[in-house]
Amino acid sequence: MGQPARRTARRRRLGAELKALREAAKITSEEAARAIHGDRTKISRQETGRHRVMRLELDVLLDLYQVEDEKLREWLIALAAEGGKRSWWRQHSDKIPPGFKELLTLESDAERIAVFQSQLIPGLLQTRDYATAIINGHSAHLADDKREFYVNLRMERQEIFQRAVPPQYLAIIQEGALRQEIGGPKVLTEQLRHLVALSRAPEMTIQVIPFSQGVFTATRGSFVLYSYPDPLDLDVVQVEYLDGALYLEEDEPVTRYKQALDGLRASALSSRQSVELISSIADELGHK
């Protein structure tokens, strides 16, 4: 049997595409299962993203479904290969909740990340002291060593920007998040100075929606858009709520969030103006 797998976005997408191809070819689950020497349950689990599709199995299924489009085959093979890739955080796997593993996978593999944050500085841009204040406040019920683990993990996540080819990163932040004194004035001042320093990197774009902007696109909350290179051609939106996160992959909701992102960016200050505002807030705090 195939290896059990977490339902990552790529595996769900691959499974959905295989199901559509099977049904278009009028092949039953039983017929597909026989072709890969499995059973109907295995096909079902592959098509719902709960079982990894091995490369040899994928080749057999694509031949069975008479898929002759080379670009489509390459795309599906890339989805399968990416879905089986080992992640840097596997060493911490026993300490990380399943839902958070999906976030780490999306974040690690993305070519472009765009985030709108209305209340906090985005996690990938946080200083250690700011992250500590956030995590201590949000996870006060956890033991000290567990909270420290999550702080260290957040810092480790930021190493994606140290890669030879880091992801392009866009952060749109409401001004209120820059003024909320999380951790106190000193911690926030250091955090704002850190944002200014980060903004100098070519892959980094930071824009602020100022209080003076009376009307802008309403999203009813923060979200992150993860985009991937061809041939993956996959976009996923993560929407956070109190106890977890929702991952959207269907074209229609993803398109709506892309449009919302465009609207938010149009309402925000330019990168230069945003850095000037961040610096001025830091200066104000420094005189407290």
- Taken together, the total number of domains comes to 2
Helix content range of the residues, please?
Answer: 40-55%
Briefly note the structural class of the backbone.
alpha/beta
What's the count of strands?
6
Q: Count the DSSP helices.
A: 12
**Strand order, largest beta sheet:** 3-2-1-4-5-6
Describe the oligomeric state of these chains in a short phrase: single chain
Which blocks of ≥5 consecutive residues have pLDDT under 50? Answer: 1-6
| Share in β-strands | 5-15%
- Round the mean pLDDT to the nearest integer and report it: 88
Biggest pleated sheet: 6 strands, mixed
Give the secondary structure arrangement, pairings included:
Elements: H1 9-24, H2 29-35, H3 40-47, H4 55-64, H5 70-83, H6 98-109, E1 112-117, H7 128-138, H8 144-157, E2 168-174, H9 175-179, H10 185-198, E3 204-209, E4 223-227, E5 235-241, E6 244-248, H11 251-267, H12 271-286
Parallel strand pairs: 1-2, 2-3
Antiparallel strand pairs: 1-4, 4-5, 5-6
